[in-house]
Write a structure and sequence with these properties.
The chain has 536 residues and is α+β, with helices and mostly antiparallel strands. Helix content is 30%, strand content 23%. It has 4 domains: 75 residues, eRF1 domain 2 (Nucleotidyltransferase, domain 5), CATH 3.30.420; 199 residues, OB fold (Dihydrolipoamide Acetyltransferase, E2P) (Beta Barrel); 120 residues, Aminopeptidase (3-Layer(aba) Sandwich); 83 residues, 3-Layer(aba) Sandwich (Hypothetical Protein Ychn, Chain: A), CATH 3.40.1260.20.
């Protein structure tokens, strides 16, 4: 599979696009006003301890206090052979045996037992923390919607080949390195250079072919970095204080993603290009030849043909190659994805037609989840299939493509209703949430009242005014579209109102009003009485 990374940078924005076989599969955006927080380390103060939730709220200086669950406390764990590795979010790496990413901040389910070893239970939150206590925490999930950031006390420092965990006590290896002998060899190499009682380490996927000397050099750097961070708590003053800021988006991408599995990296900023080359010379000089500077006047993303795909990721509808399509609907509780056959009707066998559409949809669902960066619970409604064999094929296709996702994902078996439920690790807002805002007219519903509905509401309001004995001359202001409907469809309404109510009612269009808005104004005094009478 061909893999490329494109980086387009301006003074106010850096965009990173990841392409697989010339198709956009991931987009990351970094702007000064929306700084990324995941990985930042804070000196915080416990504001409240909630034994009923087994959680605490920690003041780290953000608008809303950070959420710390007891499963994220720093405590000694038994060793486990199946350490995890998260390439994008180093703050999550220190939880190698945690359950799949939960869609909310509810307490996580107890960890499963694997093999002969059993993970220790975390301490009770009320035994570990007290109100007013000062604590070092690291952001593992950015503020989303009405929730503050989520933090962990299990701090991790990510390098290119290793993740150093100062509060752990074991050496683990990425699950993505599957060969058991290789895992044992890598563990032995790191244990040979690991200072006693200095913490824990996870060997990352790209560390498979690294020498012991390289491990030692990076480990020394990470331990020294943590030592400087830890010392800051003595002189930065009272919390909350920022102790360490996670590396920039570009450097994080180079550190976590750019390897021999990536064919090329193209950047359109000379300054950023020089920084990347300098950084690679220090950590992976063999990759320098794969970095290219784009200097054409035409935009890099336009040249690669990904701008249109970026625009489409905000649309509800996503077309499939055969003629079918997906409808993606984000809600507060979950993201629903509906699969439709569209204009694709196949030839003779309906089951084969449905299977082909569903297989295409499975691939596109996995891609859209990555591209839109949606998280939490996702429910996909595929077209109903008669045979279990075909349902299993679609599920396997979905799981195969979800396996390419750097965020932790899990797809469950097809339900009795023909739905596939999934979870995807959520560490920040989706692109839709971060780059758009609710419509002032529809308040995020995507729907507005019809002109006829507005006219009926206006009519009820005028009658309510008359019922209270008011006989003032009234001016009704309507949006031009609603006024046009009134003139064309109900031109005699105003005369009927005047005749039945006993006072004059004049209509006037007002382009400054919203489409679903109207105003009632008493002409003599010029007083707006809309709020008094327009209750429904």
């Amino acid at each position: 599979m061909k893999r490329e990374i494109l980086i387009s940078a301006t003074q106010r924005e850096v965009r990173v696009a990841i392409l697989e076989d010339d198709q956009l599969v991931e987009l990351q955006v970094d702007r000064p006003e929306a700084r990324r927080m995941v990985g930042d380390i804070y000196w915080g103060k416990v504001e409240a301890v909630l034994p009923g939730l087994q959680a605490a709220f920690v003041d780290i200086g953000t608008d809303k206090s950070a959420f710390l669950h007891n499963s994220d406390l720093a405590y000694d764990e038994d060793d486990d052979d199946d350490a995890d590795d998260d390439l994008e979010e180093p703050a999550d790496v220190e939880q190698p045996d945690s359950a799949e990413a939960a869609p909310s901040d509810a307490p996580a389910a107890p960890p499963k037992q694997r093999g002969r070893r059993r993970r220790k239970e975390p301490p009770q939150i009320q035994d570990a923390l007290k109100k007013g206590q000062e604590i070092i925490v690291q952001v593992s999930k950015e503020p989303i919607s009405t929730k503050g950031p989520r933090v962990t006390a299990q701090v991790s420092m990510a390098g290119r080949f290793l993740v150093y965990m100062p509060f752990a006590s074991r050496v683990g290896v990425s699950r993505k390195i599957g060969d058991r002998a290789e895992r044992q060899r890598l563990r032995a190499l790191v244990e040979g250079v690991m200072p006693k009682n200095s913490g824990g380490v996870i060997v990352r996927t790209v560390g498979e072919d690294v020498t012991q000397e390289t491990f030692q050099r990076e480990l020394t750097t990470l331990i020294g970095q943590w030592s400087r961070i830890n010392k800051k708590t003595r002189f930065v003053g009272k919390p909350p204080k920022l102790l360490h800021r996670e590396t920039s988006l570009t450097r994080g991408i180079i550190r976590d993603l750019f390897s021999t599995k990536v064919d090329s990296l193209t950047v359109d900023s000379r300054q950023l290009h020089n920084e990347i080359i300098e950084y690679l010379n220090g950590i992976a000089p063999e990759l320098v030849d794969r970095v290219h500077l784009y200097e054409d006047k035409k935009g890099l993303f336009d040249h690669a043909g990904v701008e249109s795909e970026i625009r489409d990721l905000f649309k509800r509808r996503c077309d499939l190659p055969s003629g079918g399509y997906l409808i993606v609907e984000p809600t507060e509780a979950l993201v629903s994805i509906d699969v439709n056959s569209g204009r694709y009707t196949g030839k003779k066998d309906p089951e084969k037609t449905i299977l082909r559409t569903n297989l295409e949809a499975a691939r596109e669902v996995a891609r859209q989840m990555r591209l839109r960066d949606v998280g939490g619970i996702i429910v996909a409604d595929f077209i109903d299939m008669e045979t279990k064999q075909n349902r299993d094929k679609v599920l396997q296709e979905l799981r195969t493509h979800l396996g390419r996702d750097r965020a932790r994902t899990k797809a469950f078996a097809v339900s009795d209703l023909g739905l596939i439920e999934m979870t995807r690790q959520r560490v920040r807002q989706s692109h839709l949430q971060s780059m758009t805002e609710p419509c002032e007219v529809c308040h995020g519903t995507g729907r507005v009242f019809t002109a006829e509905t507005i006219v009926r509401r206006m009519e009820r309001s005028v009658r309510r005014m008359a019922a209270e004995g008011r006989r003032d001359q009234l001016l009704v202001r309507l949006h031009p579209d609603t006024a046009m409907y009134l003139l064309e469809q109900e031109s005699d309404l105003m005369k009927k109102l005047e005749k039945g109510l006993g006072f004059t009612v004049e209509m006037r269009d007002d382009p400054l009003l919203r489409p679903d808005e109207f105003k009632l104004v008493v002409k003599g005094a010029g007083r707006d009485v809309t709020q008094q009478y327009a209750v429904a």
